[in-house]
Please model this.
Amino acid sequence: MVPKSESESRKLLGRLRDTMAEDSAGQARLDKITHLTADSMGTEVCSIYLFRDANTLELCATQGLKPESVHETRMKLGEGLVGRVARSGKLINTADAPAAPGFRYMPETGEEIYSSFLGVPIQRLGEKLGVLVVQSKQAREFSDDEIYALEVVAMVLAEMTELGAFTGEGAALKARHTQAVLFRGATGQEGTAMGQVWLHEPRVVVTNLVTDDPEREASRLREAVDKLRVSVDEMLAGAMGDQEQVDVLEAYRMFANSKGWLRRMEEDIALGLSAEAAVEKEQSQARSRMSQVTDGYLRERLHDLDDLSNRLLRILTGQGRETGAEMPDAPILIARNIGPGELLDYGRRLKGVVLEQGSVGSHAAIVARALAIPLVIHAERITNEALNGDLILVDGDQGVVHLRPDETVVNAFRDKMAMQAKAQERYASIRETECVSADGKRVHLMMNAGLMADLPSLVSSGAEGVGLFRTELQFLVRNQMPRRDELAALYKRVIDAAGDRRVIFRTLDIGSDKVLPYMKPQEEPNPALGWRAIRVALDRPGVMRMQLQALLRAADGRAMSIMFPFIAQYEEYARARAEVDKVIAREKRLGHKVPERLSVGCMLETPSLAYASDRFFEEVEFLSIGGNDLKQFFFAADRENERVRRRYDSLNVSFLTFLEQIVKRCEASGTALSFCGEDAGRPVEALCFAAIGIRTLSMRPASIGPVKSLLMRYSLTEIRDVIEESRVRGEQSVRQAVMEYLRDSS
Model:
């Protein structure tokens, strides 16, 4: 029978603690735990299966099955009842295991004589480590009390595994946080970096799992919860007026005052867990539920509970974010996610950033681009695996991260970085040279920017100006709307720093994945196609007018270029342009200087705008193709979706043909045209865009050298011929033909 009383449960946990404290090898500890658990549960069998790799479980210890099957019996994720538990993260309880769906007979274990099966996942904070199983000959389902007891043992096993209590020979018993790990994520910002891990939120380490004094632990828990509630109330008091932050903190307060949450942790303590272990047990279950939930609202609430549990653990352990550790010389920031303000606080000290979450258009990605540091997103589980100071290699070009790499990988990575550095030296030699192709065609190379810190790159990169200055960063990093005079002062510093080089300011581009901290988020089924950018500005013109006033005053009589984002039809441009005229008239009435020359243009990011009336092309003074958005709408492929976004090539014949149509319309109307986006900074793509007639390209500063170098070496006329020949042959993409031409011509 399972322990019925609290004292018996504490006795089992106490014996587990004693086993952990013994000076014995990991295998011996595992063997003793299976014996203790089977004895306490009154079952003939207790077995522990641990992952030897991401897809394979290995029987690492057993009481009751054949001893020779230990470290020999293995199964794939999802294979057999044990594999099903591991894959789903949910328990299986059956009185007739051979008849259960997915059952797999393993003759080497001798388990065929056991009918009853109870398997629970061994997992810590959502990370699956293995499966704990009990079996008996008697055909029966295990009771709720027995299930709970086994779950507590599994939780202690998970913590002991994290603390390195079961290290030994073989892949399944390898020491944690010591092996080389490869993470395949997605590119948030290109570039490469080598450095040491710096965790944005250092892991809370729980070492006291079991208690002999439940009353004292329950008292510690209640005191910590009281402190947590006070801190949430204080944060709420300081957040008044910031509705979104208030909403989050109200959810925190609801959880902090939840009687059910506190009661479950107190019940765990009564059965023998320490206060910290009880909190982490609840947190692990919340993370497990989080991975199963598809509803966005519920996932956010579970994330709130997870964050609150972290705060409670820090109160109990005294382990704050400031651990006393010194930031390494070449820090690579590791985080689940991070806000733009926090990332800016780190600034250029960082060599790179790796996030478990994030998106290519997120606030963090925008700041990483502005800081010119490599960013990899969607690196799942890296915060569980990485430790402060670990060697880490970040390949933002490929979206790959090497944690604790072996010497071979390090040497290859160093070679790659050395080649890039050598190339940069070569690019520096042509920095002051005009970009003219081999057949005499002039191409203008501009840079994208969003921070004052970007402006020194105007000189060092050789950019001819700023083709896109993102103005939303100044709005995103604050908890309240910036004032007009603050913006005017910032924009003036940008213009001053640029000197005689042109700067094109894009007005506020918010919505979709860029939500202001002080703006109520809009629940939309497809935000990329929703209320964003110019649509927000025209519906809420007050902010746009304030920003336009700031821009005009920053010019202080000098030339000014303003660009509106996400224009989909002529009427939107006409209304936005009318707002500019109104602001100019008002500034004149107030006696303020207005720009000596004002150019007003817009981003072409939707296919619809390419088919606007001739009147639009005649009125707009310049157009900038927003390649990132235009490509996703042209191919109907969400650029945040890794499954589809890489399927569609920028050098696809249909896309290039579409771009050529835009070029012809702009040539007919005399409208200046540029291309802005990631593809503008990719040398082969840039070469093709220039060949079809787009002679101004705007990109990140680091891309200007490689793009200029390639453009100056080849004839655009010949590249145009290669594109045309590829089109005539009916090829889907011109990439292969262009690459073959470049190889043959080099």
About this structure: The first helix runs from residue 6 to 21. The first strand starts at residue 45 and ends at 53. Residues 245 and 706 are 43 Å apart (CA to CA).
